[in-house]
Amino acid sequence: MSGRRPTALVADDEPLLRESLVRLLAQAWPELEVVVQVRSGRLAVESFEALKPDVCFLDVHMPGLSGVEAARFIGRRAHVVFVTAYDQYAVQAFEQGALDYLVKPVELSRLADTAGRVKERLRAGKGAPDTEAQVEQVASRLAGGVAPAALRWLRAAVGQKLRVVSVDEVDFLRSDDKYTLVAWRSPEGERVEGLVRTPLRELAAQLDGGQFVQVHRSVVVNLRAVAHVVKGANETATIHLKGRDETLPVSRSFLHHFRMM
After folding, report:
1. Quick one: how far is CA 118 from the chain centroid?
2. What tens digit of pLDDT does each residue of 26-62 get?
3. In contact, 170 and 181? CB cutoff 8 Å
């Protein structure tokens, strides 16, 4: 840690429990500096990008973006500790994944043990462990053992800023070399475009197939954003979008999505 104080983010939608955890952290890990407290997974991701804390304490169940989904965004860039209300099935999922977790109401002794493990990793200069596969297993188990839910949020770079975007706000996605261009409209009606590091092929597999369809090898569109479709030559078509001037191509292979006879 090169002599500086380690920093932390605490995310919980229940203010009293969030404040309680911060007080306990002051006892179990006095040198830790809690640089931000937030009430949602979305704010956790945005605050993490702005402040880059060393440790993130994430409540598993938060409205909107959950703690598990926020952990997906954070990845190995920080040490993550999950916090969950007592749920035997959830606890089993964390234990089998060997992830750091705390059960509400958080006990000082348990917190001290967890803090000790994370401190040791930081002291040894070890990066955050690779828990991506384990997080996905936990997400699946917490969903009742079914396949993970469709992607709900995207992290898109807009210039020097990072935006967390609800998938429902997305109009279309287009392949852009190693990246994916995402075009969306904010709740205020602002039309925005940003870049996501994940290739379009991987993103398409995670989207709700009932809402998003691939219309070209390089384009996926949100059906809710489609105003009308104009049939073209050679079994192709052009998509016109609601509130946008640009159009999207529909290639022959994907024309079946629009039963145009």
Report:
1. 23
2. 999 999 999 999 999 999 999 999 999 999 999 988 8
3. no
- Contact (Cβ atoms closer than 8 angstroms) between residue 33 and residue 8: yes
Which residues pair with residue 175 across a beta bridge? 180
Query: Contact, 74 vs 52, CB < 8 A?
Result: no
Fill in the DSSP letter of residue 139.
H
d(CA 79, CA 65): 19
Domain that includes residue 14, residue range: 7-142
- Domain assignment of residue 107, yes or no: yes
- Give the integer Cα–Cα distance in Å for 167 and 180: 14
Residues 123, 17 within the same domain: yes
What is the distance between the alpha carbons of residues 57 and 21, in angstroms, rounded to a whole number? 9
> Are 31 and 122 found together in one domain?
yes
- The span from the CA of 125 to the CA of 167, in Å, is 36
The SS3 assignment for 228 reads strand
CA-based nearest residue to 95, from 39, 130, 134, 133:
134
Q: Please give the model's pTM, rounded to 2 decimal places.
A: 0.56
